[in-house]
Amino acid sequence: MYRMNVLCCAGTGCSASNSAQIVENLQEALKKYDIDSEVKVVKTGCFGLCQKGPIVAIYPDKVYYCHVKPEDAERIVSEHLYKGRVVKDLELSDEDLETKEKIYDIDKIKFYEKQQRIALRNCGKINPEDITEYIAMDGYQALGKVLTEMTPQQVIDEMKKSGLRGRGGAGFPTGLKWQFEKDQPGEDKYVICNADEGDPGAFMDRSILEGDPHAILEGMAIMAYAVGAHQGYIYIRAEYPIAVHRLEIAIEQAKEYGLLGKDIFGSGFDFDLELRLGAGAFVCGEETALISSIEGKRGMPNPKPPFPAVSGVWKRPTSINNVETLANVAQIIYKGADWYASIGTEKSKGTKVFALGGKIKNTGLVEIPMGTTLREIIYEIGGGCPNNKAFKAVQTGGPSGGCLTEKELDTPIDYDNLVAAGSMMGSGGMIVLDEDNCMVDVARFYLEFIVEESCGKCTPCRVGTKRLLEMLTKICNGEGTMEMLDEMEKLCYEIKDTALCGLGQTAPNPILSTLNHFRDEYIAHIVDKKCPAGVCKALLTYKIDPDKCKKCSMCARNCPVNAITGVPGKVPYVIDTDKCIKCGTCMSNCRFGAISRG
Amino acid sequence: MKSLAELKKMREAALKKVEMREEGKDYRVVVGMATCGIAAGARPVLNRLVEETAEKDYNCVVTQTGCIGMCVYEPIVEVYGKDGSHTTYVHMTPEKAVKVLEQHIGKGEVVDEYTVDAAKREA
C-alpha cells in the first residue's frame, strides 16, 4: 500500500520541459532511499498551470512544486518524501500568482479558485494510461447506466435538457444533433470525435486526450448508443503524438475490460472504435472535409446540405462531436441534466475550457462556468499582462474569431454574447494582446495562417484571402492607401457570403474586427506611416537624442550591422537609418534613455 | 464487463489507489518524519498506520511532517479532526498506532494515556 502519491505532469507542455526525466530521477531516488514501496510516482495529464511547469504534486499533502528540474528530484525525495519537510524554494506560492498569502490548499490559489472543472476534472489527477484510475473516478458508470437503464431516446432527451452545445466553435445543441442522426432510417450509422484541433494557441482538446482519454471513449460510446451507431472514429492529427499514444492505450484497455467491443454490459450493444490520423491540415477540422479525409480522399469540404447527420462518412448518417463536448457527456449522464443545466447562463449551459496565452502572466488551461466575465479570466485567473504593460485586446476564436477590447471586458462569456461583441467562442483559444502588439500585424498573422491553410477548392477563399493578405502586407509596409480599407472591407463581406465552408466564411473576421475596434491604427499606418505599437519594422526609425547621449559607445558596440557612428567621450552617436535593420538592440543597451523609436 | 455490479466492484478496488488525491476525510493523521523522528522509529509507525488505514478503511488520511520541536517525545503522531480538534500522541510504536486508529479514528475517543499531556503528567 502506498502512503503517498507523487503526480508529475506528462502533458505536452511539461514533457517539453523534460518531465519524463523528472519521473525517472524521482523513481531512482525513491529506490535509493528505499521508500519506493511506500511512494508511488504517477504520470498524469495537464494541470492547467502550464506557466509554472513542470509541476510535481504531492498527495495527500497537497503540495505543488513548480518549475521542477530533473536535478531537483532527489531533493524532493530526500527532504519531503523521506523526512516530511516541504522544499520551500520549489513550492508554488501565491506570491508567484500575485497575492502575498502562503497557500496551504492548491484549490484556493487564484488560478484555480474561480474554475469549475468538468471536462478537465481528471486532468492532472489520474494516470491516463491506467483504466482502473478512471474507473475509480466514477468512470464508465454513465455508460453502464445508459446501457442498462435508459433507452436511446431517453439519453438524447437528457442531453437536450442539459443544454450542452458543441464546444468546437459553432455551438450547435448536442442533443439536437444526435436526434437528427437517430431519426435517420437504416442500421449503418457512425459517430466521429473531431480531435483535429488547429486554432493557433488552442490546446484544450490535446490536454483532455492526454490527461483523460477514457472520458472521450465513454462519451463516444454513449453517443453511439443514443444515435444507433456501432462504429466510431477518432480523427486526430498526427502532430499530437502523446495524445495518439494515450488513446491507443486507452482503446486497448477498454477492449480488454469489455467496455468497447461486443455486448457491452451484457446489454447486447456493440461498439468499436478506431483512430484516424490526420496530417494536420486546418481545414480538416471542418466536418465535411474531415469526413473526406477519413474516407481516404483529399481533405476538402463539401456543400451542406446534406448534413453529416443525413449523409456523412461512407454516405451514412454520422454525428461529429468535438473532444471537449464529448468530455462533458458522461458527467451529464452520471450527475444528471439538471445539475449541468444549473451551471452557466440561460442560453449557454455548463463550463468552457479556454487556453490562455499571449501577453498574460499565467499561461495555461482554465475551465470556467459560462457567464464568467473576460475580466475575471484575464485578471483574476490569468493575473493580467506581465511587466506592467497596458492591456489592449483579447483575441478569441482563433482565425475565425475576433478581438475584444477593454469595453467588452465585463461581458459575461457565452456563445451569444461573444458573437454580439463581434467575436466568437471558437474552440476556446484566448490570446491576450498588450500595448506592444500591433493590431494590423495581428490581422496579418491570422490571414497568413488562413492563406496557408486554405484548401483551394473555392475561389473566394483561395484568391480572396490572398488579396486581403497582400493589402495587409502593403499597409504594414507603409504602402497602403485609405481606399484599401474600403476595398478590404468590401472583399471581406464578399468572401463571407460566398465561401464554401466555415473556414472561408469566417476567415475575414480578424480583419473586420480589428478594423472595427482599431481603425485608428490602420489609419496611422496609412496616413502617418507610423506603427504606434512599434512592431511593423518598415515603419520604424530609431533616433539618438544628442543632448541625452553620454557618448559611451554602448549602442555602437552592440549594433550588429555597424550602423551607429560617433567618438567615445567626444562626439554624440548617430544612427545611419539606411543601414539600420531596426532590431532594437541599441535601444535596450542604452542606459540613459537617449534612443527613441518612432 | 458484463454488468454494472462488476464495474462497481472494480471501482471499489481501484478507489484505494487514488482516494488520497481526493478530499473529504474526517481526520488527518500526521507523523513527524524528521531525522529525530526517523531515528526514534517513526518509519515503522508510519508504515503501520498506512497499512491499517487501507485495510480497515479508516476515515483518515495519513501523511507526514518535519520536526515539530519536541524531539524528546518522538515518534510523534498528531491527529487533526475536521472539527478543528488537535491531539498529539507521543513515544509512538506500531502497536500504539493501531490502537489510536481503532479508538480515536474509529470511535472518536482520544487515547488519553498516549497523549503528550499524559507523558508530561508522568514526568
Spell out the key features of this protein:
heterodimer, A: 598 residues, alpha/beta, Glutaredoxin, Ubiquitin-like (UB roll), 5 domains, five-stranded mixed beta sheet, B: alpha+beta, four-stranded mixed beta sheet, 17% strand
CATH class of the largest domain in chain A: Alpha Beta
Q: Give the overall average pLDDT of chain B.
A: 87
Structural class of chain A: alpha/beta
What value does the average pLDDT of chain A take?
92
Number of strands of chain B: 4
Weakly predicted, low-confidence segments of chain A: 98-104
Major interchain interface with per-chain residue totals = A-B, 35 and 37 residues
**Count the helices of chain A. How many?**
23
In the CATH hierarchy, what is the architecture of chain B at level 2?
Answer: 3-Layer(aba) Sandwich
Q: What CATH architecture of the largest domain in chain A would you give?
A: 3-Layer(aba) Sandwich
How would you portray this structure in words?
The complex is a heterodimer of chains A (598) and B (123). In chain A, the strands form five sheets. Chain A has a five-stranded mixed sheet, sandwiched between helices. A five-stranded mixed sheet of chain A has the order 11-10-14-12-13, sandwiched between helices. Chain A has 23 helices and 18 strands. Residues 98-104 of chain A have low confidence and may be disordered. Helices cover 39% and strands 16% of the residues of chain A. The N and C termini of chain A lie far apart (66 Å). Chain A is globular and about 90 Å long. Chain A is of the alpha/beta class and 598 residues long. Chain A folds into five domains: 4-113, 3-Layer(aba) Sandwich (Glutaredoxin), CATH 3.40.30.10; 131-341, NADH-ubiquinone oxidoreductase 51kDa subunit (Rossmann fold); 351-434, Roll (Ubiquitin-like (UB roll)); 439-526, de novo design (two linked rop proteins), CATH 1.20.1440.230; 541-597, Alpha-Beta Plaits, CATH 3.30.70. Chain B has a four-stranded mixed sheet with strand order 2-1-3-4. Chain B is built from five helices and four strands. Chain B has a single domain, classed as Glutaredoxin (3-Layer(aba) Sandwich). Chain B starts with a helix and ends with a helix. In chain B, a hairpin with a 4-residue loop joins β3 (77-81) and β4. The A-B interface holds A 1-5, 7, 38, 59-61, 82-86, 125-126, 132-133, 135-138, 140-141, 144-145, 148, 257-259, 263-266 and B 1-4, 7, 10-11, 13-21, 31-35, 37-38, 46-47, 49-51, 54-55, 61-67.
